[in-house]
Amino acid sequence: MKPYSVLLYYQYVPIEDAEAYRDAQHEFCVNNNLLGRIIIAPEGLNGTVSGLVADCEAYMKWVKEDPRFATIDFKVEYHEAHAFQKLHVRLKEEIVNSDLPVDPLKQTGTHLEPAEFKQMLQEDPDLVVIDMRSNYEHSVGKFKGAITFDMENLRELPEHIKEIEHLKGQGKKIVTYCTGGIKCEKASAYLLDQGFDNVYQLHGGIIKYGLEAGGEDFEGKCYVFDNRLTVDVNHVNPKVISKCYVCGTASDRMVNCANNDCNIHVPMCEECGWKMEGACSEECKCSPNKRVYNGTGYYPKKSDHYTPLQGLKSFKKSMKKEEA
Question: Does some domain include residue 163?
């Protein structure tokens, strides 16, 4: 087994002491050498972190010891090293940006476990599958036959509802999906709010479907928000659906354009990656703000003074006491 774990998780649950819980999360991660991104909000917890297997197991145990998160669902993958360079634990109004006027704690689509979803994919002719991710995410991988929207983020969903209005009253079963399930909590709730019925969501998203059901009929790779950029999902009938942005050959190798002013997320074959020095066009290749291509197409933000302790209030308070 690979030495590091990558965790993906969320839970909608009221958090009255969000600021205090943010500090507790940050302190635990610092003390256990975990890196990644965690969001705390009054509506719940959302995170993806990496660390040594033992450290991640300690983190999962610690989170679940809190009764509010006793049923939280961790998606666990394994990796050769940390999937992140930094640790950020932030306090926000939402655990996923949506601005949708819904509350997943009051109403959301019916959860489908991976095995249930797989069976429906194979047997139900009235099934409609809808991708709730951004356009650059589904460009490199999506479920076979899924409806996709040309949107940058979930806040744009209301602008695309008209594209599926014809599904109302047709007796179709609508299943939404995303990377780890969190967007679908609000997206499926919004569809119900807009008058759609028979709305379901893939519990745990694409990642859990790959881990528990083999990923069958997910075509391409799954875009992830860490230095891996994409991960394999389908271990049954894999297929490449994306093409190199530069030369047009089949490629599911995702990069960020090396030009920091552009930074678009596009598929790019390895040959073009080196030829274009990681840039998506000749114009970007000649940009004075082009970053040095490292062969991966992933460019973590630089910070000369960064430490994992940044933003940890309890740490700052203790330092002030020591100085006094």
Answer: yes
Q: Per residue in 115-128, pLDDT tens?
A: 999 999 999 999 99
Q: Which domain holds residue 177?
A: 110-220
Greater pLDDT, 64 or 306: 64
Nearest Cα to 223, choosing from 281, 297, 284, 275? 297
Q: Which helix (H) or strand (E) holds 77?
A: strand 75-79
The answer on pLDDT for 91 being more than 70 is yes
Amino acid residing at 167: L
Residue 293 lies in a domain: yes
* Catalytic hit among 29, 178, 257, 269: 178
| Domain count of the fold of the chain | 3
Report the relative pairing of strands 44-52 and 35-41 from DSSP bridges: antiparallel
Same structural domain for residues 123 and 202?
A: yes
Question: Does the residue 125 lie in any domain?
Answer: yes
CA-only gyration radius of the chain, Å = 21
Catalytic, 178? Answer yes
Q: Are residues 55 and 85 in the same domain?
A: yes
Residue 40 β-bridge partners: 45, 91
Q: Does one domain contain both 114 and 203? A: yes
316 or 107: whose pLDDT is higher? 107
pLDDT at position 77, please?
Answer: 97
Here the CATH number for the domain that contains residue 53 is 3.30.70.100
Residue 316 is assigned to a structural domain of this protein = no
pLDDT at 167 > cutoff 80: yes
Q: What is the pLDDT of residue 314?
A: 57
| Torsion on CA atoms 72, 114, 144, 129, rounded to nearest 10 | -70
